[in-house]
């Protein structure tokens, strides 16, 4: 397999090994159990643990609200873009902010080491159930605590050109 795109992004050997192991294990699960069963098992696991895992990377939503003087979004945007800049520096993901408004923020991941590894190994879908699905468990929970909605319409893992992360302030009628 040609891993040169990873090296071009600056990924370390340690991070590369972690990405490959995670995706390889997911691919083997899918081959041994069938994709549907492997995805169901992994999603059930993610339903149980994703919030706790992601909480190690994000302060509670209430802290963002407090830092923002009652507004979650400004400090969250600052933190999340800094985190994505760090991910890019480590060669793990490349992202761009495409909406930056007072009530909406959208970040699109345009390259992802996990999705690319899964694609190179022949099945992007294993990345979705082993990695992307956790976002869809954590972010609605996290954002709901701050009066925001999270929406995702596409992922690199499932063949889209981007993974979209849209955060929108809930209105009074919601």
Helical segment count:
7
Global morphology:
globular
Number of strands: 4
Give the ordered list of helices and strands.
HHHHHEEHHEE
Main β-sheet, spatial strand arrangement: 1-2-4-3
Average pLDDT level: 95
- Radius of gyration (Å): 17 Å
Distance between the termini: 48 Å
SSE-based structural type: alpha+beta
Provide an overview of this structure.
This protein is an alpha+beta fold and 174 residues long. It is 57% helix and 16% strand. Strands 1-2-4-3 form a four-stranded antiparallel beta sheet. It is globular and about 50 Å long.
Quick overview of this protein structure:
With 174 residues, the chain is an alpha+beta fold.
Features:
16% strand, single chain, 174 residues, alpha+beta
Write the layout of secondary structure elements.
Blueprint (H helix, E strand, L loop, with lengths): L3 H6 L3 H21 L1 H20 L6 H7 L5 H17 L3 E8 L3 E9 H8 L4 H20 L3 E4 L11 E7 L5
Antiparallel strand pairs: 1-2, 2-4, 3-4
């Amino acid at each position: 397999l040609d891993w040169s795109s990873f090296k071009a992004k600056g990924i370390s050997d340690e991070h590369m090994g972690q990405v490959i192991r995670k995706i390889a294990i997911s691919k083997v699960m899918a081959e041994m159990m069938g994709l549907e069963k492997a995805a169901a098992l992994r999603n059930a696991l993610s339903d149980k643990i994703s919030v706790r895992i992601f909480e190690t990377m994000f302060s509670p939503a209430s802290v963002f609200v407090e830092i923002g003087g009652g507004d979650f979004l400004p400090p969250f945007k600052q933190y999340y873009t800094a985190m994505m800049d760090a991910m890019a520096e480590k060669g793990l993901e490349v992202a761009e902010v495409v909406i930056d408004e007072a009530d909406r923020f959208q970040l699109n991941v345009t390259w992802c080491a996990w999705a690319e590894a899964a694609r190179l190994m022949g099945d992007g879908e294993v990345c979705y159930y082993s990695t992307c699905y956790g976002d869809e468990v954590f972010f609605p929970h996290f954002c709901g605590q701050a009066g925001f909605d999270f929406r995702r319409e596409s992922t690199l893992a499932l063949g889209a050109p981007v993974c979209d992360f849209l955060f929108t302030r809930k209105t009074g009628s919601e």
